[in-house]
Amino acid sequence: MQYTRRDIGWIALAGFASTTGLVPKVKGATKPNSKIKGVQIGTITYSYRSMPDQSAEATLKYLLDSELSACELMAGPITDYMRKKGKWDSSPAAAADAAANAGRGGRGGGGGGGRGAAPTYPVVAGMKVGFGNDQPAGQWNGVACPAGRGGGGGGRGGSGAGLQAAGGRGGSGAPGGGGGFGRGPQTPEQVAAADAERKWRLGLSMDIFKDLRKMYNDAGVTIYAIKDLPMTTDEDLEFMLNVASTLGATHFTSELPAGANAAATLKRLGDAALKHKLYSAYHTHQQGSMTVFNDAFEISKGNMANVDLGHFMAATNPGGSPLDFLNKFHDKIASFHLKDRTTVAHCALNLPWGTGETPIKEILETVSKNKWTMPASIEQEYDIPQGSDAVKEVRNCFEYCRKVLG
Question: What is the pTM of this model?
Fold first, then answer.
């Protein structure tokens, strides 16, 4: 593998950062600025889940190479940093737990978002794509949906094998959290290791997270949200909120709670967030709809939406368009995710930006025109093309945002 001069510089920089916790100012270095016409474009660092190094330093490099100045930071890089700076004991039990949880920062594994060989859905010359297209149901650009998919039928998009659909992701750590495909039962050794690390974690100084924030801020990257740090117990929740505040986040995100304990969870998280002058923002997959957040908004003023407007496009019964949701609930959206998906009628695909049906251009223009301040998070989940990687594809998504915003 050949390295550019910039790569070599960043390799050295990451080495320095890993030992000092700081990114030094590099003479002549230009900090990124991904705010376009008032719209802050960032990414959830889950987008980089397929990259080999999931450390906080490497994640910062991915963000800079994607030309982004803001992010929703996953638990993986945060945990990596606290373990190094807090000198977490790497005993066999702790190592077993670390190995079992190595993918925590990248929910869904190392793939590019796809699930094996998938049909190819080309952009056909003369065929209208994007929001408001007139393609017939049951296919996308002349390629029929796989059996049991599309055509306007029921069933949730994005979970069939062989589709370019959203990869499954684990739960949020919140009781009653919206499901995903969580890990299996832990061994007694892993339970013991997790409990030992929990006790160690709760005793950490917030100075560690001040250093992490400084490293990112000095490089020109702000952290507007964090996701997936444990918050099962009240002590865990308090720790997570302190970390979020220290990192400069305005909110933390988790999957929208469901089930018998949903109301209690919404009350607990929303009210706790308010005490720290933060918001608890909930993410949606294909359960997204015009009413899905009603309970959350009503139960606590600390609850906001971290709606995924791409998944909203592929929802079975949304009751409106992504633009309808944006216009109605803009003052309740802490941040939102973007991806280019097709409707259930058109196979519920997850595609390179500009080739699906999500009205990305209209969404960004609406935010810009109204001077709304919630960040837009790129979430890279389509299949990564041969010869590319997640960093390049996130940058391509950002370039698409820059292009459509002019």
Answer: 0.83
